[in-house]
Amino acid sequence: MSNMTENKLNQTDRLLEVKNLRTTFRTISGEVKAVRGTSFYVNEGESIGIVGESGCGKSVSMLSVLHLLDDNAKMEADEIMFHGKDISKISTREMRKLNGHEIGMIFQDPMTSLNPVFTIEQQIRDPLMRHLGYTKEQARERALEMLQVVGIPSPESRLKQYPHELSGGLRQRVMIAIAMCCNPRLLIADEPTTALDVTVQAQILDLMRKMKDDSKTAVIMISHDLGVISSLCSRVIVMYGGLIVEEGLIDDLFYRTAHPYTAGLLASIPKGDGEKLVPINGTPPDLVNPPKGCPFAARCRYAMKLCEECMPPRYDLDSHHYCHCWLHHPSVEAKKGKVKLV
User: Fold this and answer.
1) DSSP string computed for 230-270
2) Is the pLDDT of residue 5 over 60?
3) What is the largest CA-CA distance in the chain?
4) Would you state the torsion angle of the CA atoms of residues 20, 21, 25, 30, taken in this order, to the nearest 10 degrees?
5) What is the pLDDT at residue 193?
6) What is residue 336's predicted lDDT score, i.e. its pLDDT?
7) Distances (CA, A) of 109 to 114, 134, 153, 252
8) For residues 223 and 245, what is the distance between their CA atoms, to the nearest angstrom?
9) Who contacts 284 (Cβ-Cβ below 8 Å, separation ≥6)?
10) Are 114 and 174 in contact (CB under 8 A)?
């Protein structure tokens, strides 16, 4: 099958497709260019990961898609197609009909995302009554069912409790129950295992994997940890400095790493065999005054003068794997030899 035919077939399965997303924030220091022209997609039932350091644009990209930005933010995009409809310029009211219904979101910190003055029952019940027209009793039964599905013990008594009465792991399960109660087409999970111990992390990831398989929901997992991403996702987007620097299948990123930043992320994953972790020296770029060339050039051991002066174009390495790095320019490869990053 040719790449053109394959791409046409894939596009018929597209659930979300974002084209040229730009998001800025007005601050005292100036305009922060948090997302600088990213384009990506997720197919029906697919799981993709978005990885990168804090401040690289992962969460802001998703909050932009969902129209959940602060008042000092401005989002623009050529197009944000969700299930065949451009949602880039729809009203807040229209977006509220999608959020919590067709799109579920698991926020990074359940303690600040859950409402402290409402019981767990009220917080699961609300989207069911608002989006699906459930009666109060029907919504209560569904809330009880969802707590059982996410593995919360004694669900009857938990319905009456408030968020502060639950452990971090239980609060995260409640967040998953809220996000999944309306059977969304797309689930966005923003660092769902942050601040949880290793055992609870594994339980949460197993739960998300099971619910994804059972409901055929597409998943976008946001994380700084490629190890977490690899356990759930088939395709990964790597972001740095508000841009996508590499995208590929899991095996592409782990075994055919194309961008030095991705290689740096991989080197920072604990191996469990006593091997020393290798930090990425330096700091992320200032997005008030972003560099005109590659955003990673100042921290990259392979950087050339060209990297500092010109933004690298996209180099397609195969039908599912591309990166933005001058090392893949034919003349650079010819002069320096193929650089092996892994």
Assistant:
1) HTT-SEEEEEETTEEEEEEEHHHHHHS--SHHHHHHHHTS-
2) no
3) 71
4) -10
5) 81
6) 55
7) 9, 28, 21, 31
8) 16
9) 53, 55, 56, 240, 241, 295
10) yes
